[in-house]
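Quiz preparation item.
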């Protein structure tokens, strides 16, 4: 790596590390699925069974539907962690290679990094909470404080990254036209 790219990546270090943690989170979830899938699913079912009479009115089919959806949320957390984290890292490298403004790049990287870890954790927590709350809607609503800022950080970070990259790539500074 040339020193200007290294310096640019260093300026984005907080976001880079958060995005890498997002990838680690996603990969770790996959490992946990491989090692403990039955135990994880059993725990979700036990949480639903604990409130079967009160929350589900004794309707085991309704409880099972929430458990199944919760498991889908676990898988969503796994996929979002690896995918968003990797995409965020790619965007950061593009910013560094394009020579985008360092302070803006650092802010963008931080936003992407926060979203890379926050958004997958939201899906995991929603999956954990849902069986005991009687539904995924209630679980997601209870975690709005995490979902909205982390997904917002991802969107704002990406829009700013596109703008910063375009500005850096199409700037006439340093060209010989």
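Solution:
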């Amino acid at each position: 790596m040339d020193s200007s790219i290294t310096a640019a990546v260093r300026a984005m270090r907080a976001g880079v590390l958060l995005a890498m943690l997002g990838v680690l989170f996603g990969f770790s979830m996959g490992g946990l699925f491989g090692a403990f899938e039955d135990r994880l699913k059993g725990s979700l079912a036990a949480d639903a069974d604990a409130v079967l009479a009160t929350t589900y009115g004794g309707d085991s089919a309704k409880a099972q539907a929430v458990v199944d959806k919760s498991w889908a949320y676990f898988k969503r957390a796994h996929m979002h962690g690896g995918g968003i984290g990797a995409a965020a890292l790619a965007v950061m490298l593009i910013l560094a290679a394009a020579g985008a403004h360092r302070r803006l790049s650092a802010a963008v990287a931080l936003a992407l990094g926060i979203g890379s870890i926050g958004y997958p954790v939201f899906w995991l927590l929603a999956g954990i909470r849902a069986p005991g709350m009687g539904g995924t809607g209630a679980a997601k609503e209870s975690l709005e404080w995490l979902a909205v800022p982390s997904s917002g950080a991802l969107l704002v970070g990406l829009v700013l990254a596109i703008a910063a990259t375009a500005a850096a790539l199409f700037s006439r500074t340093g060209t010989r036209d």
